[in-house]
Write a structure and sequence with these properties.
Layout lengths: L20 E14 L2 E14 L3 E5 L6 H8 L7 E6 L7 E4 L11 H5 L1 H5 L8 H10 L15 H13 L5 E5 L7 H18 L2 E6 L2 H7 L2 E6 L4 E7 L14 H22 L1
Parallel strand pairs: 3-7, 3-8, 5-6, 6-7
Antiparallel strand pairs: 1-2, 1-4, 8-9
Length: 272
């Protein structure tokens, strides 16, 4: 049984269920062609993601989480169904990849300003904002370094700054902390939560980590594999800001246990 859920309200006091959707995903499927025939990566996936919501996509490797995220960003096209972005559409979107994909011959500051270059805007007009973002994420004094001079955690902080430089309404994150050590990952989870609380951007976050999903999210969407489909949506009824200590609380354990049971149940059914 899922932990007791929720009648939640936004920062403005408006019920979350009443907020308009930022993303509408309607019966989306994805089929890839291979030498062995067609492979269905995603079945019929439907969900509305509310404006200002932090939502995590949780599931095993190969279940289609990243595929769904890339289709939201229009980096891939769905085979069936539709995805609608409200607000500024693709122009209001920031993407943080699994790897930081920083450009080694540019300084950290110039890497943060790279999306501005791509959009043919004037980097000088965004320099102060870039410096402010770097300071917020603990990179003050490193703006003139090259990426190879930074640690993995610092590189990923720079990648988040780059995604935020043009003030996107929608932030998509594809396992951005998966390759980091546990302590750095915890630090970045806390920093990301603080950022989200300040800006209330709509965030879609892909992760393999149950603990990370529960700590960060308003809702956790569980996706099974072969083909990928939504098998559970769990609302996380925890006030913010959340400290790392909540992971030791019984309520947090109940959320985590429920998600583990859902994943294990569908994994067992797939192997039968």
């Amino acid at each position: 049984m899922a932990p007791a859920a929720l009648s939640k309200t936004s920062a403005s006091g408006e019920p979350e269920t009443a907020r308009s959707p930022a993303i509408e995903i309607d019966a989306v499927g994805k089929i890839y062609e291979s030498s062995d025939g067609a492979v269905t990566a995603l079945g019929s996936v439907s969900i509305d993601i509310r404006e200002g919501e932090f939502i995590s996509l949780l599931g095993p490797s190969g279940c289609g989480k990243t595929t769904l995220l890339r289709m939201i960003a229009d980096l891939e096209k769905p085979t069936s169904g539709s995805i609608r972005l409200h607000g500024r559409g693709l122009d209001g979107l920031g993407f943080v990849f699994q790897r930081d994909v920083l450009v080694n011959w540019r300084t950290v500051l110039d890497n943060v300003l790279l999306p501005i270059d791509f959009k043919n805007k004037k980097p000088k007009a965004y320099r102060d904002k870039a410096m402010q973002l770097l300071a917020t994420f603990g990179l003050k004094g490193f703006e003139n370094k090259r990426p190879w001079e930074l640690s993995g955690g610092m590189r990923q902080r720079a990648a988040i700054c780059r995604a935020l430089i043009d003030d996107p309404q929608l932030l998509l994150m594809d396992e951005p902390f998966g390759a980091l050590d546990a302590l750095t990952r915890d630090e970045l989870n806390v920093e990301l939560q603080a950022l989200w609380q300040r800006t209330r951007k709509t965030a879609v976050f892909v992760t393999h980590s149950i603990t990370e999903a529960v700590f960060l999210s308003d809702r956790v969407v569980v996706i099974s594999d072969k083909p990928g489909r939504i098998v559970d949506i769990l609302e996380i009824d925890y006030p913010r800001p959340r400290s790392l200590n909540i992971r030791e609380e019984p309520k947090f354990s109940r959320y985590s246990r429920h998600l583990r049971e859902v994943l294990d149940r569908h994994d067992a059914a797939r192997k039968v």
